[in-house]
Every structure is written in C-alpha cells, then in structure tokens.
Design a protein that fits this description.
LpxK; single chain; 3 domains; nucleotide-binding; lipid a biosynthesis; 12 helices; Rossmann fold; ATP-binding; alpha/beta; transferase; 400 residues; 12 strands
Length: 400
C-alpha cells in the first residue's frame, strides 16, 4: 500500500508533458483508472454543492464565529500550524477559541496541538463529526460573543502581547475549523485557504489523478489566501502563484508564511530542548511521513549539517517494524560511508503519531524538530495587517 501511495503521489505532481520521461510503465498503466475516478469525482462535487443549496443536506451554524482553515490540495499546506497561530493569537487577546479537528490517522496533528497549547484557554475538540463535537464543548463551557468580551478590542488583537497576559473567559468565543474548506456542512464566517508554495497545484488534476480536492475556481469562496513555505521558493515563483490566484479572484488578500524552526526535542525526553545549531557539522537522516517532505528536508539543510539524507513515507504513515529495519539499514550505511554516527531528525507530527516506535532506533539518537508559523512581510502585507484583515472580515460577517 505504501508503494502504491508513493506512485500515485508522483503521478499527481508530474506535469502531463513529463509523464513519459518521469513515470514508470506501471504508473502509466494506472493513469486511465485514476483519470476515470477523477472524472466521477468531478461530477460528484457540483452535485454535493447543489444538495446543500437546495437544503437537502443540512448546514450547521454555531452561536460563535467560525474561522475555517483549509486548502485545495491533499496536504502539506500548513493548515495545522495556521490553526495554532490563530488559537495563540486569539487566546492572548482574551478570546477562548475552540479548535475542531478530525483527528485523522493516529490524530498526530491533534496530539501536537494539545502538547503545544497545554495550559492555555484553547480547547481542542477531536472527532469526525465536528458538529457533535462542537455541541458537546459549547454545552460544557458555554459561549460568549467575542465582541461583547470586555478584554477584546482591535488594538489588543493587533498588539504583540504575551500569551496569558489577558484575562480569558472559559466560555468559547470563536471556533477554528481545521481542514475545513471541503467541510460544507458548517457555516463559516471566514475562509482561509493555505497554498504550498513548493508544490501549489501539482498536475492541476482532481484527486486521485491529481492532488486537487476542488478546481481552482473554488478560490472564489476564499476570504484570505496564505502562500505557505514562501521562504523556500524564489520571488518569481511566489509572484506566479499569486498571479494565478488573482486570475480567479482579483480582490483576494494574499499573505505569505513560513514554518520557522525553533529548537529540537529529544525523542523519549521531550523536556530536553536542544538548540538548532546543535546539528551543525553532524550527519543527519531526515525521516518523515508528511505531505511536504521537501520543505522539512530543506529546513534541516539550512541548519548546516555535514550531509542530510532522507527517507520519505506517505502522509500520516504509521511506522511498522519493516520501516524501522529500513531506517536502521540506511543509518548503518551512512555511518560506514561518512565514518561518523548519524542522527535521526523527525517532525513533530511523526513523533506524536507513534512516539514509542522511534525508541527501536536505539542506539541512534532521534531528535524532533519543533517549528511555528510566521507571517512574512511581503508587498506591504505584514502579520499586523493579516490580523487586521481577519478581524475586519469577522466583524463584517457578524453584521450580516
């Protein structure tokens, strides 16, 4: 199954004109089947939308504003880091947010959020039925309009207060819908769409032939677009992506973001933090099961290791005994080739998915890279203008 996922992923990110030179005979044989499935999917999308328009499928509306963070492709776009960014910002401003997440495949993203936001007023609801999860949390904690909260004002929301400096009601003031763009059963007050600058649209085909969950025309529903990993591509590439977005909706505010590395944790002892510079002049094996492994590897390379090798698995992959054997074999080969003991570096998502598995890599050290999302200044847009844009959209929606 892992090999099949990798083959399909390569097809999805290979331009049509490069298929014959880049894809294997087996991959080429899969294209007609994937194409048929994509065609069927393309018919199902507008039908589902029409059922919601006719009221035959019900939309849930919460008594608090809802911010949806989503994307058009199948992962690696920075949705969860953006969700955390919003939650930290709102809670620092005196609003208690509720994060609603599916907890997909081992709930690695939910576990990471729970660890990062422990001790804050942020609440995290995990479950496939997010309407039921939201109802449960709202019943338990109650809710309050963010515009009626005495500590909430635009000046406070735009300031760089430290988290916890504002008194925060335990009542829920805003819901943040993680991976919410295709979750049509929820009314949302603002739609944030994340785009991966390194691989924005793949081959421009719908799943499963391509990575698109919806056509690019779905950007007309967006209120804000954030081009993530903008620091890892050229300015020309960023402008090309922005131009393509504006062709769909010219008035759409576009912001840039990056995933800023903060420090390393030691696997098995997360109370032990190491500086980023600690891997400079070391031999590193990057092991990841995320949608955007390239961004992870490029980040590690910038930290100055002697050499950074990589082993990539499909997104949310659960490591098995055979995977551990493969990783250890690669480590032994690296040690033999470079005459120095390599260090394994994983992402937080990989660690939180199955932390107990990584202990079987002993005697090799395993480090966990911790990062957070940052809004990059670009064409006059800053973190402050991003927050202001969000708040203005929310206030307009509240008056509607």
């Amino acid at each position: 199954m892992e090999k099949l996922r990798k083959m399909v992923n390569q097809i999805a990110y290979t331009p049509q004109q490069n298929r014959l030179s880049k894809l294997s005979a087996l991959q080429l044989s899969l294209i007609p089947i994937l194409s048929l499935a994509s065609t069927l999917y393309s018919f199902a999308l507008p039908l589902r939308c029409r059922l919601y328009q006719l009221g035959l499928l019900q939309k849930n509306r919460l008594p608090v504003p809802v911010i949806s963070v989503g994307n058009l492709t199948w992962g690696g776009n920075g949705k969860t880091p953006m969700v955390e960014f919003l939650a930290v910002w709102l809670s620092a401003a005196g609003i208690s947010p509720l994060i609603l997440t599916r907890g997909y495949s081992g709930a690695d993203e939910a576990k990471m959020l729970q660890r990062h936001l422990y001790g804050t007023p942020v609440k995290i609801g995990v479950g496939a039925n997010r309407a039921n999860t939201a109802a449960s949390f709202l019943k338990r904690y109650g809710y309050i309009s963010p515009w009626k909260h005495s500590d909430t004002d635009l000046e406070g929301l735009l300031s760089n207060r430290k988290q916890g400096s504002c008194s925060c009601s335990d009542q829920i003031g805003i819901a943040i819908l993680d991976d919410g763009m295709q979750h049509s059963s929820f009314w949302r007050d603002i739609e944030i769409v994340m785009v991966n600058a390194m691989i924005p649209w793949g081959n421009h085909q719908l799943i499963p032939l391509g990575p698109l969950r919806e056509p690019l025309t779905a950007l007309t529903r967006a209120d804000i677009v954030v081009i993530h990993h903008a620091d890892l591509v050229s300015e020309k590439d960023v402008e090309a992506i922005a131009s393509e977005i504006q062709e769909v909706k010219n008035s759409l505010p576009i912001f840039m973001s990056r995933l800023a590395p903060l420090y390393f944790l030691k696997a098995g002892n997360t109370s032990c933090k190491l500086a980023l510079m600690d891997i400079s002049n070391t031999l590193v094996l990057c092991v990841s099961a995320i949608a955007s492994a390239d961004s992870f590897v490029e980040t590690i390379k910038k930290l100055g290791p002697v050499f950074a090798d990589r082993l990539d698995f499909s997104d949310h992959h659960l490591f098995q005994a055979k995977d551990i054997d493969m990783i250890k074999m690669r480590l032994r080969n690296l040690q033999s080739e470079f005459a120095m003991k390599p260090v394994v570096v994983v992402t937080e998502k990989d660690y939180d998915r199955a932390p107990e598995v990584l202990k079987y890599l002993d005697p090799y050290e395993v480090l966990v890279l911790c990062s957070s999302l940052r809004i990059l200044p670009h064409n006059g847009n800053t973190e402050e203008s991003f927050k202001k844009c969000l708040w203005q959209h929310l206030k307009v929606s509240n008056k509607a």
